[in-house]
Each structure stands twice: as C-alpha cells, then as structure tokens.
Design brief:
There is one protein chain. This protein has 159 residues and is of the alpha/beta class. Helix content is 30%, strand content 18%. The protein has one domain: Rossmann fold (3-Layer(aba) Sandwich), CATH 3.40.50. A four-stranded parallel β-sheet has the order 4-1-5-6. Strands 2-3 form a two-stranded antiparallel ribbon. The longest helix has 13 residues. This is FCP1 homology domain-containing protein. It holds the Pfam family HAD_SAK_2.
Length: 159
C-alpha cells in the first residue's frame, strides 16, 4: 500500500491564490471550522481526486484541522476517511513529527509520502526508511502539478 499523508494549509490550500498565477480556475468552499471561504485550485484538486481513487493508494489527512480535514477531503471528492492525531513528547520537534514516525512504524511494509509545507529540515534528515518522499511546497502556491506528476510515478509503481 502507498499512503499519502496530506496536509491542508499551505499544501492543498495555498495561502495566496491568484487567477493570474495559475492556469486553472479556483473553487471555493464554505465548510471550514472558521466559517471563512476556502479557495483551492481546481486542477490540483482534480488530480488529487484521481490519485485518491487509485488502487493500492490511501490518503490520510495530516492536518491540524482534525475531523474537519476529512469533511474537506470528502467534499472535494478526495477519497479519505482517516486523519492523524498529533502527539509530541519533545517540544524541540515539529509537532506532527512523532505521530508521522509512529504511523510509519506501524506500517513497516508500506511506502509513505508526506505532503506538508511545514515539514522541517529535521524531518528530511532523520526519516523512517519507508517514508520514501517528502513534498514540501511553498505555502503561497501549495502543491503544484509538477509535484503531482512525481506522486503519480510512485502511484504507478504500486500497480
């Protein structure tokens, strides 16, 4: 199985969205816990939907939004019914790191991809053997089509 740990803010939800800077249209959602509309790029979302419906792929939401991240994914059509719960005993570590390592350790025979704009430098240096790729997009842009094409290469290897 290929697991994709997918963040929301700065990853699928860019911090700055402009119709001029991207060749797709944007979609807006009104389901956030802050009751503010969310804007995402349609082509990125469509590609994530396709990836999420691939055989041998499971997307796990890896966001501080918790349960709301599942609602957002399902609203967009991204197949995901699980999210990581974060715990961290070490205040010097990135707050998601211990939960990500634990997830990797409980899935030793699976391959895992992390998509998170805040993945720290420490993560890239001391990662579990099965965390095969880390995508750390610029939070203003979020994941790009180039990133998703690279993810597709990993997906296709799982067939």
């Amino acid at each position: 199985m290929l697991y994709i740990l997918l963040d929301i803010d700065g990853t699928i939800l860019p911090t700055h969205i402009s119709d001029k800077s991207h060749p797709s249209t944007k979609i807006s959602l009104d389901i956030s816990e802050t009751n503010l509309p969310l804007s995402l790029y349609e082509d990125i979302t469509n590609e994530l939907v396709k990836i999420s419906h691939s055989n041998h792929v499971k997307i796990i939401m890896c966001s501080s939004w918790g349960e709301t991240s599942i609602q957002i994914a399902q609203y967009l059509g991204i197949k995901s019914d699980e999210y990581l719960v974060f715990f961290n005993d070490n205040p010097k570590q990135w707050y998601k790191w211990q939960s990500i390592v634990n997830f990797c350790e409980t899935h030793p025979k699976d391959k895992i991809i992390l998509c998170d704009d805040l993945a720290s430098y420490e993560v890239t240096r001391h990662k579990p053997h099965n965390l095969i790729k880390i995508f750390q997009p610029n939070p203003q842009d979020g994941l790009t089509m180039k990133d998703l094409h690279k993810i597709w290469k990993f997906v296709n290897k799982q067939k």
